[in-house]
Amino acid sequence: MQEIVLYIFMGASIAAVLVMILNRNIFYGALALLICLISLAGIYALLQAEFLAITQLLIYAGGVLVLLIFGIMLTNKISGKPVLTDSHNWFSGIIISTSLLGVLLFSFQQTEIMIAQSNLNTTRNINNIGIELMSTYAAPFELSGVLLLVCLIGAALTASSFKKKTNG
Amino acid sequence: MAKTDLLFYLSAFLFCSGLLIIFTKKNAIMILMGIELMLNAANLNLVLFNFQKTGMEGQFFALFVIIVAVCEAAVGIAIILKTYHYYHTSAIDQISDLKERP
Questions:
Q1: What are the two backbone dihedrals, phi and then psi, of residue A82, each rounded to the nearest 5 degrees?
Q2: What is the DSSP code (8-state) at residue A160?
Q3: Which of A94, A116, A142, B38 places its Cα 20 to 30 Å from the Cα of A148?
Q4: Is domain B2-87 in CATH 2.60.120.10, yes or no?
Q5: Taking the domain A1-77, which CATH number applies?
Q6: B91 - beta bridge partners?
Q7: Tens digit of pLDDT for each residue in A95-150?
Q8: 3-state class of A55 per DSSP?
């Protein structure tokens, strides 16, 4: 049962990525990215990372995708026709990405990945994540808070039209 | 276990298709989407290695990767909006002059 759900999620993410590559409409690309992110969240939940799955749903599907769609709407004059994008460099792009894919697949096949036998330990729950985030990972947690604040101020200052406001 | 091997191949495929999107698309927002796809492939790899070990380090690393990706997306969208207001386009091959136009 679990494996069938896993295969469904994998197929959905691969199909969504193919839609992103082959389609010219940016809106369809954004929606395909949404499908890919949701199926990745499902895969995380199957791999015993439930907190990460919920974080992925909240932040990516709720935050980043809305931001990207805002960007699409603000940078294109929408007049009823679909928002299309051009593409170039198909030859060199396909050569570089398929060769990298070949190298990665070859090295994954060559490597013997050690699998710990105790996959079903009970210490990997949300209680433990909260405790470790406040004890072991306290410094990166605080630093990420500072990073989010700096990013908020920087994005607001960059996107705002500062000079026009002072003139008017 | 065969299915985790398949998931490693899936993460490699996602990374390479993100790279292909960055190479081939002309719109700047589509390039940001490709970057997000590559970061998600790296996250899937981290969660897979964490699934095969006993600790929880991979999950925390993936969490911080998500936080940094959100910051990158916000600042990137802000820069794209600013260049769109100046050049009136978001196709990156038409944004080619650094100096102010006379």
A1: -70, 150
A2: S
A3: B38
A4: no
A5: 1.20.120.1200
A6: B27
A7: 999 999 999 999 988 887 666 555 555 556 788 888 888 999 999 999 999 999 99
A8: helix
